[in-house]
């Protein structure tokens, strides 16, 4: 075997290396609906701590998936947006949402609720 910097058993591992975890897919999903300020993301994801949100945003920025836009004004204003590379994740994120809706219905029936339920376009019927 040649000298490789990294070995993956499957390309799914490479995807999860970038967007894996509890919060990154949720953050990215919300960004598919437009730029968001930190406080907007925090209100959309109330269970995440400020420290964790900041950490996840930094990691996504380091991977080149999101862009941090800092406006030179008082008070300071920062927004996050998907890069072109990040936009390439839109379809998979929306498919995850649609699958999650099916899973919730299958497992919980009417005994569960989704608080943030934006209308997503029909991404290949599941």
UniProtKB/TrEMBL annotation:
<feature type="domain" description="HTH hxlR-type">
    <location>
        <begin position="10"/>
        <end position="108"/>
    </location>
</feature>
<protein>
    <submittedName>
        <fullName>Helix-turn-helix transcriptional regulator</fullName>
    </submittedName>
</protein>
<dbReference type="Pfam" id="PF01638">
    <property type="entry name" value="HxlR"/>
</dbReference>
<keyword id="KW-0804">Transcription</keyword>
<keyword id="KW-0805">Transcription regulation</keyword>
<dbReference type="InterPro" id="IPR036388">
    <property type="entry name" value="WH-like_DNA-bd_sf"/>
</dbReference>
<keyword id="KW-0238">DNA-binding</keyword>
<dbReference type="InterPro" id="IPR002577">
    <property type="entry name" value="HTH_HxlR"/>
</dbReference>
<dbReference type="InterPro" id="IPR036390">
    <property type="entry name" value="WH_DNA-bd_sf"/>
</dbReference>
């Amino acid at each position: 075997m040649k000298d490789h910097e990294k070995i993956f058993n499957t390309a799914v591992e490479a995807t999860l290396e970038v967007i894996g975890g509890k919060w990154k897919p949720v953050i990215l999903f919300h960004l598919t609906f437009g730029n968001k300020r930190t406080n907007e993301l925090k209100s959309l994801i109330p269970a995440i701590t400020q420290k964790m949100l900041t950490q996840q945003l930094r990691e996504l920025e380091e991977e080149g998936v999101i862009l941090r836009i800092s406006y030179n004004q008082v008070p300071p204003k920062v927004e996050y947006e998907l890069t072109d590379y990040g936009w390439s994740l839109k379809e998979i994120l929306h498919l995850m949402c649609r699958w999650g809706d099916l899973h919730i219905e299958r497992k919980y029936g009417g005994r569960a609720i989704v608080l943030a339920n934006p209308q997503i376009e029909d991404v290949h019927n599941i």
